[in-house]
Write a structure and sequence with these properties.
Radius of gyration: 19 Å
InterPro entries: Acyl_CoA_acyltransferase, GNAT_dom
GO molecular function: acyltransferase activity
CATH architecture: 3-Layer(aba) Sandwich
Helix content: 10-25%
Number of domains: 1
Number of helices: 5
EC number: 2.3.1.-
Number of strands: 8
CATH superfamily: Gcn5-related N-acetyltransferase (GNAT)
Strand content: 25-35%
Largest sheet: 8 strands, mixed
Structural class: alpha+beta
Protein name: GNAT family N-acetyltransferase
Domain N-acetyltransferase: 10-194
Bound molecules: coenzyme A
CATH topology: Aminopeptidase
Amino acid sequence: MPPSSKFAGVDFTQLPVEHFTPDLTISGQGFRCLRGEFVTYWRQGRIQREINARISQCWILRYKDNLAGYITLLADKLEVDRPILLDEGVQYRSFPAIKIGLLAVDQRAKGAGRRLVEWAVEYVAAEVSPTVGVRFMTVDALYDPDTIPPYDASGFYEKFGFQFTDPNESLPPSVPYRTMYLDLKPLIDLLSIPDIEPSED
Ligand SMILES: CC(C)(COP(=O)(O)OP(=O)(O)OC[C@H]1O[C@@H](n2cnc3c(N)ncnc32)[C@H](O)[C@@H]1OP(=O)(O)O)[C@@H](O)C(=O)NCCC(=O)NCCS
């Protein structure tokens, strides 16, 4: 990263992830993403339209007035071809989930993608799952066969433990993405262990 980069030296793990609400004004001017369509989604209002229609919520990372990245979350249904919770006595093949809809970071903001995904996973486990039954997170990981090599975002999500809903899917997939899911239960369990009170003696 050149020293002049506007994100030089920024530690994204230390920056707050902010809910993108009407009182938060950020233009996204100068936002550069290695997939240009994600710049367009921001600039041409797709994200704002989805928020206005209440079909997604968006969170952002910014440094000073510069947009470093954004992530949208929405309700989803995970569908799998096998009953993956049989050992818990649950025979269903579809489950409540929260989906990562759009995720993009400025290509100069290294580490911003990790920050947004780790924040989202913890947010859903800690804040959503106690009030709404939600066991999984899902994502349609972008796969573009028309670049050399093919652009495949799934490797990024694998870093966080996401698995393919269809591990045997042949490539290129029939749609421009590969659906993945993450089981939140281990984190939910960890977060619900009550703090141990200090002993009186
Ligand atoms: C995918 C994206 C959000 C990742 O963000 P990022 O800030 O580059 O990711 P980070 O720097 O936090 O990287 C975290 C780790 O994932 C790895 N990684 C990033 N993209 C990867 C990919 N496509 N395949 C495999 N690994 C990847 C990084 O090397 C890093 O690995 P490390 O922790 O072992 O060093 C970003 O590249 C992006 O905006 N891409 C264009 C839009 C897009 O594809 N969005 C996802 C659509 S589903």
